[in-house]
Amino acid sequence: MPTIDPLYDKVVIKPLSREEVTASGIVLPDTADTEKPMQGEVIAAGPGKRLENGSVAPMTVKKGDKVLFTKYAPDEVEIDGEDYLVIDEDKILGIVRD
To answer: What are phi and psi of 44, to 5 degrees?
Structure first.
């Protein structure tokens, strides 16, 4: 996996599969028309958002966090054959805790 250093308040996310498996082992793939929030794992996060006074607001998310975001918020990129998403931190809906 390449090293990605996002700038400012950008977050690089590896999307998690949304397939569901029933109790009997049947795989239910994600359907294109659902509007549910998507999940992913934070691969890298920038240093934070630069404020008007020149200071930097620290990031809330960190590498390894599982996050929720809306389907249309991130930009999709492909690096070395792998799909990643790049999103502004303020477009992340929340952190998934176990």
So the answer is: -160, 150
Residue 6: other Cβ atoms inside 10 A: 17
Residue 87 has φ and ψ, to the nearest 5°, of -140, 150
Q: Is pTM beyond 0.90 here?
A: no
pLDDT tens sequence across 25-53: 676 665 555 555 689 999 999 999 999 99
CATH of 10-17+36-96, one of 3.60.10.10, 3.40.50.2300, 2.30.33.40, 3.40.30.10: 2.30.33.40
Burial 52-68 (b: 16+ CB within 10 A, else e): eeeeeeebbbeeebbbe
